[in-house]
Amino acid sequence: MKKLVLAIALIGMGSFAMAQQTTPQDRQARAAEMKQRMEQKQQERLAEMQKDLNLNQSQVAQIKALQDKRKGEMKAQFEQNRADRQAKIEEMKAKKVQMDADMKKILTPQQYDKWQADRDAKMEQRKVAMKERRMMKKPMNTAAPDVK
User: Which one-letter DSSP state was computed for residue 140?
Assistant: First the structure.
């Protein structure tokens, strides 16, 4: 029984590893499929509202227009946030370059190299810690072995 469970687990892990490799075409197809599902859900919700609230066609059209307007506003807000986020990233990079230049003026070459190595090591520790935190948050889908 344990061999069977182990074999199934290995096959499952292999299929998950294969699923991780996606191409741009796969992403585009998945995005188109998701968009279609979202539109279908919107239609279903509208039909349910029409039934539950006894809406006429004019009201349904107005609600759909309102939802489409809201969706457009949300998309515009998302794009604005993306632009703001990119600007902040660029600003932080510029400040880092300025900090490096200032530190290079203050420290000797040996001190600067040691400071840079220490900073890189700390950054690597932060990356590892963040990965560990992400791994701790993900639910583990492991089957418990049969104990008999």
Answer: P
DSSP type of residue 23: -
Within 8 A by CB and 6+ apart from 146, the residues are: 1, 2, 5
Pairwise CA distance, residues 143 & 122, whole Å: 37
Whole-number Å distance between alpha carbons of 139 and 78: 29
pLDDT tens for each residue of the chain, 148 residues long = 667 666 777 676 666 655 556 688 888 889 999 989 999 999 999 999 999 999 899 998 999 999 999 999 999 999 989 989 999 999 999 999 999 999 999 999 999 999 999 999 999 999 999 988 888 876 655 555 555 4
Task: Give the 3-state secondary structure of residue 41.
Answer: helix
Distance of CA 48 to the CA centre of its chain: 31
CB 112 within 8 A of CB 104: yes
The token duo for 100 is: 């490096």
Amino acid at 141: N
Sign, Cα dihedral of 125, 131, 134, 140: negative
Report how far residue 54's alpha carbon sits from residue 42's, in angstroms, rounded to the nearest whole number.
Answer: 17
Question: CA-to-CA distance for 143 and 8, rounded, in angstroms?
Answer: 10
